[in-house]
């Protein structure tokens, strides 16, 4: 068997994750959740992503999602479950994913042979995922696989995303980066969410941001202009490499050739989604 190239699993995950994440930014999700009585953006996000875990409390959501201010989480959880049961939320989420992907990918792609192939490969990769110490992944792994190819692909993408995400949180914690420090240092790489988006969606204030940035400067990870120092750049590199190590099983199970093929297919779908405006331009970057 051909050995996986360095970062092949990370690259595959990244392009798959774009299709998974698109529904969080979709007006279709807002419409579905509004019909259940959930209209606040944060409430929609917490309910949608946490529903697989059942009627959990704010503490569980804060712990497993990691980068949200607990005050924001507790403002909506567990109150959301009094408005909509988790099972109802999951059904609405899948309807939103269906309409979102059909709109973003265009006619034909959701029901194409390429989508069916991508779903098959991505689901095979998930066979090697582990539930141990991965609570968000484990909850989603208990959900049934949808029959339609584009929904099966999205389901597999969700499993791969949460499997890596749970591992990534462990690595961040080991690196002694608290939730906001992790966000700030990621933003400083140019690949994370923009500061404005972090402040508007994660429940942190500018004072919180400034204090966390100060802590990073004290550790020598951030300079006075908000850029990563050499030590900060090295730490972020180490974090991604350790996350790769903890997340290698699905891609090793799939094998180098099929990882390359899945990456090719996923890149095509994610490109369509990006060109269709799946994400607001203001969500990512350093500004």
Describe this structure as you would to a colleague.
With 287 residues, the protein is mainly alpha-helical. The protein has one domain. The model has no long low-confidence stretch (mean pLDDT 96). Helix content is 67%, strand content 0%. It is built from 16 helices and no strands. This is SalK. It holds the Pfam family HTH_67.
How far is the first residue's CA from the last residue's CA? 44 Å
Q: How many β-strand stretches?
A: 0
Unreliable spans are none
Helix content: 55-70%
Outline: globular
Task: Give the tally of structural domains.
Answer: 1
Query: Main β-sheet: number of strands, strand sense, barrel status?
Result: none
- How many helices? The count is 16
β-strand percent reads under 5%
Query: What is the radius of gyration?
Result: 19 Å
Give the mean pLDDT.
96
What class would the helix/strand composition place it in? mainly alpha
- The secondary-structure element order is HHHHHHHHHHHHHHHH
Task: From the structure above, extract its key features.
67% helix, globular, HTH_67, 287 residues, 16 helices, mainly alpha
Describe what is shown at a glance.
With 287 residues, this protein is mainly alpha-helical. The protein contains 16 helices and no strands.
């Amino acid at each position: 068997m051909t050995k996986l190239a360095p970062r092949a699993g990370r690259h595959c995950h990244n392009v798959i994750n774009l299709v998974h994440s698109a529904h969080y930014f979709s007006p279709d999700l807002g419409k579905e959740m509004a019909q259940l009585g959930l209209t606040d953006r944060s409430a929609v996000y917490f309910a949608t992503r946490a529903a697989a875990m059942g009627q959990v409390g704010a503490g569980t959501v804060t712990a497993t999602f990691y980068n949200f201010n607990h005050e924001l989480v507790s403002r909506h959880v567990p109150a959301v479950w009094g408005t909509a049961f988790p099972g109802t939320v999951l059904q609405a989420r899948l309807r939103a994913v269906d309409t979102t992907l059909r709109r973003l990918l265009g006619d034909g792609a959701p029901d194409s042979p390429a989508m069916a192939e991508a779903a098959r490969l991505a689901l095979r990769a998930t066979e090697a995922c582990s539930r141990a110490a991965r609570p968000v992944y484990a909850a989603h792994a208990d959900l049934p696989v949808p029959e339609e190819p584009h929904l099966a692909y999205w389901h597999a993408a969700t499993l791969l995303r949460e499997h890596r995400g749970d591992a990534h949180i462990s690595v961040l914690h080991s690196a002694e980066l608290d939730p906001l420090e992790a966000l700030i240092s990621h933003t400083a790489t140019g690949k994370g969410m923009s500061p404005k988006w972090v402040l508007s969606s994660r429940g942190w204030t500018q004072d919180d941001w400034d204090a966390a940035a100060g802590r990073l400067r004290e550790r020598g990870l951030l300079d006075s202009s908000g850029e990563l120092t050499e030590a900060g750049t090295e730490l972020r590199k180490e974090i991604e490499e350790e996350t790769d190590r903890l997340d290698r099983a699905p891609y090793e199970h799939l094998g180098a050739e099929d990882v390359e093929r899945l990456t090719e297919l996923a890149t095509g779908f994610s490109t369509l989604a990006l060109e269709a405006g799946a994400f607001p331009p203001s969500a990512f970057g350093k500004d």
